[in-house]
Amino acid sequence: MTSADLVLPPTDQQTPTAALLRAPEDQTMDQAIGDMHVLLEQHGYVVAIYSANLPIAHERRMHSVRSVLESDRIALLKVDLPPLGIAVLVRQLRQLSICDFSPGVVASAARLLPHYIHAGALLNSVTKLDRVPVSLKTHAKSWVPGSQFAVLAGPNPQLIKVGPTVKPLDGPEFATDLLVAKGQSQSEWVQQTLAPAWKVQAIHEAALPSDSPGWWGTGKLVEFAAYLPDISVLYQLVASVRREICHWCGMELIGDRCGFCTSPLHAPENRMPSNGVLSQGAPAPPGS
Prior knowledge:
alpha+beta; Rossmann fold; Hypothetical Protein Tm841, Chain: A,domain 3; two-stranded parallel sheet; 8 helices; 29% helix; 17% strand; globular
């Protein structure tokens, strides 16, 4: 991980923590190389998840470290999710890392699991929101005092102006838990309106990631993420996807691209699981 506040507490005693890849201003290049070398020696492989919003200098540092070490055991995976969604994804990958999956499958799962993370926020303003399409009409409404907007960044972007007669955001059609992180807004809409509409199994609270106000364009927000909490469901989801061998680096993969070398799958056989492959309320992946 690239930020300590994106490392959520483990869900059980078996889930490992995550290592922190520090920014260039926080450590020298030699220290960064040394830290990565230690991680490789201790664990064999490194799967690094970072935000698409990460400063370019930090991203370049990670790629430079991998180049200096000349290692094909480091996966650098850019994820276009809001900060709280990334935190959820990282914890799910931590859970999967202790299962009987190869490093290549765990890395590839970073592209599969976001389809099952409904990440969004309740915002007091969308005037500076540039991560989700916002119409001019909605921008105008944002200037009305007391306005609130519910925004879903993924898996299918949505934006609504919150009101008593407005239908809540379309949510997951499978059982989820909801993680909530409050910023300067103290609204209870997410817990009292959205959670019942989405029929979540449980609500958990977390500290708001430091990158969230910048990602959403305002500090007056409540960020949320609905996700699959059960490791057995996550395991079935990943295990049900056809596995391939990367023609370039030889790593095992699922989906259409290698998580370690980013090479696309040669043959057009990127099969996803068929309907009914999961048994605990989660659907088959999109496109099945």
